[in-house]
Amino acid sequence: MPENAAVPPEVTDDVRALITDAGITENVDLIARILVTGVGLGLDRAGRLDLKITTAALTEMRAAFQHFAPYAGVPKVTIFGSARTRPDDPVYRAAASVAEALAESGWLVVTGAGPGIMRAAAEGAGSQRSLGVSIRLPFEERPNAVIAENSRNVAMKYFFTRKLMLVKESHGFVCVPGGFGTLDELFELLTLQQTGKAEPTPIVLLDKPGGTFWHGLERFVDEQLVGSGLISPDDFDRLLITDSVDSAAQEITGFWRNYDSMRWVGDRLVLRLKSAPTDLELDELNDRFGWLLASGRIERSAALRQEADDAARAGLPRLILRLDQFQVGSLHRLIRAINALDSAPKGPARAA
């Protein structure tokens, strides 16, 4: 069989019969694609190492999906930071405090389940409001005691699968000073937001009182990245840099005050809200954010026919727009303006 050969149609039919025999009735097309891709790897004569990586990644993702499934309706915040931070460090206390504040607001706190900041966040949230996604390392093999108390952890071999789950499941992110791993996670978030590969979410860079760690990064970004034309001048504006625990928690929850979720329907972007803007507010949004549009205006709408599979959000008011794809990285500006409208709900907010 030549490399990259197509999977024969009769094999695909056999795969679908296998799925039926297994009693699978939902998302059959996607399950079939997964299995057919596996067959394709065999036909491609993929090397054993490639197959081991594929198998391990898929196995880890299945375990992680199972890990998070019971908490699908609960908003989650991921807290990133150094494993080396000690309990007497003010940054450790800041991480614990912001985790405690968000847990008290009904959020689950997700961490890498290790020592340092990861333990601080788990301590602040408490074992009942914490979830872990740990990495298997020679020097860091077990989750911290808080996460281990209720076995609310899934262990991963690969950093890329671990990072996928830490990012995919959360509605907000808090980064406190850390090393290569923390910065890697932060820049992954920024890349996903800038390119529109992930929906807009709040990102907070939290430091100890009077700390300058993140301001140093901000200077580097302004002087080197913006100064060299490598990013847009406003790309870093999506972040909140603060040394206030209260401001950090409010940034996370406030992002969801009025904004609920988004969905693409063809070339139209649908923003689901908790409260519809008034006519005057809608005109003001169009005046301020017309530059985001490829054509037309931002309009109010009821649920579209194509959203029928999301019954839980059927009754929410909508804004519909045709977004200029080159402006996708600036969508957070419109969301923040929607949250600040006088018509937006007041009081504590949480992700849907």
What brief labels describe this structure?
352 residues; alpha/beta; Rossmann fold; globular
Assign the CATH topology of the largest domain. Rossmann fold
Mean pLDDT: 93
Strand order, sheet with most strands: 4-3-2-1-5-6-7
CATH architectural arrangement of the largest domain: 3-Layer(aba) Sandwich
Shape: globular
Report how far apart the termini are.
Answer: 50 Å
Kindly state the number of beta strands.
11
Q: Roughly what fraction of the amino acids lie in strands?
A: 15-25%
Structural class: alpha/beta
The domain count comes to 3
Helix coverage percent: 40-55%
Which stretches of 5+ consecutive residues score pLDDT under 50? Answer: none
Tell me the name of the CATH class of the largest domain: Alpha Beta
Give helix and strand order, one letter per element, not per position. Answer: HHHEHEHEHEHEHEHEHEEHEEH
In terms of quaternary structure, what is this? Answer: single chain
What is the gyration radius calculated from CA atoms? Answer: 22 Å
Query: Counting H and I runs of at least 4 residues, what is the number of helices?
Result: 12
Largest sheet data: 7 strands, parallel
